Amino acid sequence: MKVVAAFFTLFVAGAAFAQSPAAPVSRAHIQFTVENPQLEPARYSLEIYENGAGRYTATYTAANGDSAALPVDRAIRVHDPLLSHLFETARAHHFFAEECQAPHSHVAFTGKKTLAYTGPDGAGICIFNYARDNAINQAANNLMSVAYTLAVGAQLQREHRYDRLSLDAELGALQDMVRDGQALEVENIAPELESIANDDDVMNRARERARALLAEPTSIR
After folding, report:
1. 124 three-class SS
2. What pLDDT shows up at residue 12?
3. Dihedrals φ, ψ of 49, to 5°?
4. What is the value of pTM for the model shown?
5. Which residues pair with residue 34 across a beta bridge?
6. Buried b (16+ CB within 10 A) or exposed e, 67-98
7. pLDDT tens digits, residue range 185-197?
8. Which of 45, 43, 120, 128 is nearest to 87 (CA)?
9. How big, in percent rounded to 5, are the helix, strand and coil portions of the chain?
């Protein structure tokens, strides 16, 4: 997931977008937070309810170096099989109410990760850089892949407005990440992709890439 983590340093301008979060129906939800002062954003959070509704929140540094921050608060939706896997993992690991950091781990620091579960059947929280249980690491990696997709969506939005010549390379990179399973839930950036696909002023290859991404299933297999 080094590529996923590294991407968050690449975009700042155009990251301030917001949508009204879908009203959650299920009371059970998972919250995933990543904190790493070496990345941009230094902190982001995904909150996902068992009915699939959720939100992504983060604060990005202003691109021009001003002290003003750019807040992100975006409604998202997570689908099966990823959605089921996340909640199955939570319940199989005591609702994350356990010590999950791998002991004496020599793995490079990729961020302070927090997984928390709250629901009528229980609650818990675990904090780790690298977890002792691979299922916890996989859940974190999948959620980072969802966050990566949202970051690319913001980048595409900015490039579509200010730098259309960059769209083809950006979309090509996203296609590669989707094929590698490192970009998930691309349905969440469908508005950005549709806007590109329907724009006659965008080069044909970029438009074709956008259409292909819209047609391709992008959840975990």
Report:
1. strand
2. 37
3. -90, 160
4. 0.84
5. 44, 113
6. eeebebebebbbbeebbebbbebbeebebbee
7. 999 999 999 999 9
8. 120
9. 40, 25, 35
